[in-house]
Amino acid sequence: MNSKVTPWEVDIESEEDYRKLIEEFGVKEIDDNLLNELKEITGDLHVLLRRRFFYAHRGFDELLKEYKNGKSFFIYTGRAPSKSKMHIGHLIPFILVKWLQDKFKVNVYIQIPDEEKYWAKKTDDYEATRQYAYEDARTIASVGLDPDRTFIFINSEYIKHLYKPAIYVAREISIHEAKKVFGFDDSATIGLPFYISLQIVPTFFEESYPLIPCGIDQDPYFRLQRDIAEKFNRKKAITILSKFVWGLQGPYTKMSASDPKSAIFIDDDYETVRYKILKYAFSGGGATLEEHKKYGGKPEIDVSFFWLSVLFEEDDRKLKEIEEGYRKGEITTGELKDYTAKKVWEFLRNIQENRRKIDLDKFMYDGKLASEMWNWEFKI
Ligand code: TYM
């Protein structure tokens, strides 16, 4: 197996690697049956589900059954700030969260662990990382979450409420198990094994089911949670797991926040988006315009086409037209890139406008759910 996936390291090289992860992690594929059941409740399906970018799950089938029997759930996910701003890949789980919140009218909890990337040595400046924590909270809120039903918290600020349950959780997980699931080596800091308990605690915020949309790299935390939840009279975590958005350099490359040539950032302006796509986006087009027109392009390895298919072209018919036109060489690489830049910008402009208007305090301190949570106390 070529792939290596932990919350701190992701190395995927093919669709085959994603399939193998399903076996390795012991999760299930999101299949037609499951999507049809969801659609019966929601009326339609978000593009990230329809196109199977969220491709695996643990227990989501059970959750839908329980939901139909009148049981409730809440949503929990998070973002660990680092030494740079969020890119479009980081936003994927939050876009699905917004859709789920609209459909099910449920509470959403967003954890911003400002210690995680510092302890993982992905950033060297803790104070700067803390500043990014607020920037990221604002970005996440601007996907359109409901301020009455959303609580965004930064770990170092909210720690008083997290610490007591973390005391209980930390006792239940041995270094042996943590190593087995996360593969720590001897150079790992002692912060990270403890951090596991802090990422598990929010699954206990409510007594109903925690539903967690996230990248598949985050699954190990919740596998451990499922082993211990019942000890605390809490429900086992349900995950819906996504693949990773490719970086600009090509299929299965990492979109890395520390490499601007690989990523589109949430605050990039139109000129920057267009420039990056035109200059850096790996193309599946022919070597010359003549060759492209004669032999056609390969949408399956083209980063622009990939981005359209993941999220930015919601119209299935239009996507098919682009795919066929590109494959036949009728659509040029330049045209495809230009179109992609426009679609990405349509999306980003909206986020950026919301970002300026957002009253972040409502999500973090004094909104309906936020003010309740500042009084939250863990009781078994
Ligand atoms: P972080 O900050 O590394 O990433 C935030 C979320 O984005 C996902 N992600 C991606 N999804 C698609 N394409 C990409 N290229 C891409 N890069 C990152 C991640 O899988 C993640 O879901 N430990 C977490 C923060 C966290 C959390 C949680 C996540 C705290 N509590 C609860 C999920 C659930 C982290 O470092 O995420």
From TrEMBL:
UniProt xrefs under InterPro entries: aa-tRNA-synth_Ic, Rossmann-like_a/b/a_fold, Trp-tRNA-ligase
Top-rank lineage group of the source organism: Archaea
First-level EC class: ligase
GO biological process: tryptophanyl-tRNA aminoacylation
Entry's EC annotation: 6.1.1.2
GO molecular function: ATP binding; tryptophan-tRNA ligase activity
Cellular component per GO, a single term: cytoplasm
Keywords: Aminoacyl-tRNA synthetase, ATP-binding, Ligase, Nucleotide-binding, Protein biosynthesis
Catalytic reaction list: tRNA(Trp) + L-tryptophan + ATP = L-tryptophyl-tRNA(Trp) + AMP + diphosphate + H(+)
Family per similarity comment: Belongs to the class-I aminoacyl-tRNA synthetase family.
NCBIfam families hit by this protein: PRK12285.1-4, trpS
Protein name stated in the entry: Tryptophan--tRNA ligase
Organism expressing this protein natively: Candidatus Nanoclepta minutus
